[in-house]
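Field reference: "sequence" (input) and "structure" (output). Example, Class I SAM-dependent methyltransferase:
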Amino acid sequence: MSTSVSAAPDALGQALLAYQHGHLSATLAVHSSVADEEVLPAAYFFRSLWEMPEMERTALEECRGRVLDLGAGAGCHALELQQRGFSVKAVDISPGSVEVMQERGVREVACHDIFDAALTQGEKFDTLLMLMNGIGLTGTLAGLERFLEHAKTLLAPGGQILATSSDISYLYEDEEGALVFDLNGPYYGEVEYTMHYANQTGAAFHWIFADPALLQDYAEAAGYAVEFLEEDDQQQYLVRLTLP
């Protein structure tokens, strides 16, 4: 889930491997710069179609052509698309995640950073899929801007990016509902995370939660048409970005 390769332990991958190999209660401890520690069951990455949020099911319905699944985790989306007859390449930066996907039957798997020049080896894709708050893979506002340019080299003519993100401004509301954050500081949606599994601590990484207006501004500035396909009451949204 990180955006840069690290020599630190692969906490996410080890948790997913543990689950894959029968430790069904495997959990990750997730620390962030904006909230208390959260417990994330490895099982969540293995969910079936009907365990997925409606927004993810909508995204799968909107896929077309050759698909590049970025930040693919344990491969639940890639496997579902394979079952529907799609040609899918699944990519994750976590070596453990890649191993799990291979064991689960994802046909094309690669271990890459999303900015890696070797990511597609020059191949073009009709759909770039970025689910589970997948915009977060870009890390920061600068990373988002960089990725929107990079994605142009990955997309076939008429291709699309299907991505989810959310607005986390609610974390900064005071008791009266007013937003309280430093307007001169970093964007409030830029979060630093660390994951822990068993006695392993992964490298800290940045993750961005882009509010819809900001995402639209950045995407349109990069030349994309923006279509919001779905939003929910938790401030999460699914967006389609296309190039003219």
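The chain is about 25% helix and 30% strand.
Confidence is low (pLDDT under 50) at residues 1-5.
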